[in-house]
């Protein structure tokens, strides 16, 4: 079955461009469009998309609040949110990731990256581009706790190896890269990542990365 995509952006020209790119793919189907967050909520309820391509800055309701209402706690719907941001890395992307977005993509990304990102998110994975994600969290670290706060009790539920894996996830490493770094198999890494998400009550790697920064486990600008 085709992946059902909802386009949310206040610029009709951009929506048209995205539609043309996506409809050229046999496994993607654009089921609707919305010009702001409120329209997006209505469209999600009516159309039940698999992936919502969400702009951040929009009138009436921005993409952060719309993401929160689509994917927040207690929401069991199928929709995953892929946030669109500008090249200079919009500070609100951090809030969107906290709100439940499965990742983000630059608006000027090549067409093949847009298509691949939608497929990745639809499959239940996180769109976590290592270099961009790290820069984003470091740049907007002032929006995150300082790291002087007490370590959350939930962090103590992790084993030492799971803490290592979480740190590497926060640095944006893939499973293969983590496996090479820790000298274990990629399957073992996947198991550790799954345990981390389950124990911390997180949905995906993006939320795990944000959690690592918020908890003080990883400090902005640090290499470990």
UniProtKB/TrEMBL annotation:
Modification 4-aspartylphosphate, positions: 55
One GO MF term: DNA binding
Span of domain Response regulatory: 4-122
Keywords: DNA-binding, Phosphoprotein, Transcription, Transcription regulation
A single BP term in Gene Ontology: phosphorelay signal transduction system
Entries under PANTHER family matching the protein: TRANSCRIPTIONAL REGULATORY PROTEIN NARL-RELATED, TWO-COMPONENT RESPONSE REGULATOR
Limits of the HTH luxR-type domain: 151-216
InterPro entries: CheY-like_superfamily, NreC/VraR/RcsB-like_REC, Sig_transdc_resp-reg_C-effctor, Sig_transdc_resp-reg_receiver, Tscrpt_reg_LuxR_C, WalR-like
Protein's name according to its UniProt entry: LuxR family transcriptional regulator
């Amino acid at each position: 079955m085709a992946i059902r995509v909802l386009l949310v952006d206040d610029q009709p020209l951009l929506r048209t461009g995205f539609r043309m790119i996506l409809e050229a793919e046999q496994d993607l189907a654009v089921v609707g469009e919305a010009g702001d967050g409120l329209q997006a909520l209505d469209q999600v309820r009516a159309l039940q998309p698999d992936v919502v391509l969400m702009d951040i800055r929009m009138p009436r309701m921005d993409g952060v609040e719309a993401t929160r209402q689509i994917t927040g706690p207690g929401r069991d719907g199928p929709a995953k949110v892929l946030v669109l941001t500008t090249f200079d890395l919009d500070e609100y992307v951090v809030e969107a990731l906290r709100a439940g977005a499965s990742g983000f993509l630059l608006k000027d990304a090549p067409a093949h990256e847009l298509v691949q990102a939608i497929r990745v998110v639809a499959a239940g994975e996180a769109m976590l581009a290592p270099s961009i994600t790290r820069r984003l969290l470091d740049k907007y670290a002032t929006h995150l706790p300082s790291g002087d706060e007490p370590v959350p009790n939930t962090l103590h539920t992790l084993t030492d190896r799971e803490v290592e894996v979480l740190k590497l996830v926060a640095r944006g490493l893939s499973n293969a890269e983590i496996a090479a770094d820790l000298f274990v198999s990629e399957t073992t890494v996947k198991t550790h990542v799954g345990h981390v998400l389950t124990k911390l009550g997180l949905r995906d790697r993006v939320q795990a990365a944000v959690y690592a920064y918020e908890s003080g486990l990883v400090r902005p600008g640090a290499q470990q």
